[in-house]
Write a structure and sequence with these properties.
The protein has five helices and four strands. The chain has 128 residues and is mostly helical. The protein has a single domain, classed as Arc Repressor Mutant, subunit A (Orthogonal Bundle). The strands form two sheets. Strands 1-2 form a two-stranded antiparallel sheet. The protein has a two-stranded antiparallel ribbon with strand order 3-4. A hairpin with a 5-residue loop joins strand 3 and strand 4. The protein is globular, with a radius of gyration of 15 Å.
Length: 128
């Protein structure tokens, strides 16, 4: 018997690869050869918070695809370098999103979007 309630069941550990691709496709392409994130024109229309989230989601996608990235998360300095902005701009934004439960932080101060927050991130980016 097919129970409608079963459609509500998700695993917080499971990554929705289709959802991740839907979020990222307007903004970035992932370069396997250089292990790099190439931004598209739509990236320019994003605010700082959305750029941070897209960048972190792109790293998540790269790890899921088996890129030789090392780790999924990124430090505030790494994010600032990629976005070409001052570290003082990125740090407070990362801490705010962590406090809101959008990001998590590792022991070595790397921020990442947990799988359970990807749906929420999609809503945040699409409202821009």
């Amino acid at each position: 018997m097919n129970d409608e309630l079963e459609a509500l069941v998700v695993s917080k550990k499971e990554l929705d690869r289709k959802l991740l691709a839907d979020i990222l496709s307007p903004y970035v392409r992932l370069d396997r050869d250089d292990c790099d994130i190439d931004t598209l024109e739509a990236w320019l229309g994003l605010g700082t918070d959305s750029k941070i989230l897209v960048y972190l989601l792109a790293r998540k996608a790269m790890v899921a695809l088996g890129f030789d990235l090392g780790v999924e998360g990124a430090t505030a300095s790494e994010v600032a370098l990629v976005m070409n902005v001052n570290h003082e701009t990125v740090g407070p934004e990362l801490r705010k999103m962590r406090a809101e439960g959008i990001l998590e932080e590792t022991k070595d101060y790397r921020y990442f979007v947990p799988n359970y927050a990807v749906v929420r991130v999609k809503g945040m980016i699409s409202t821009q």
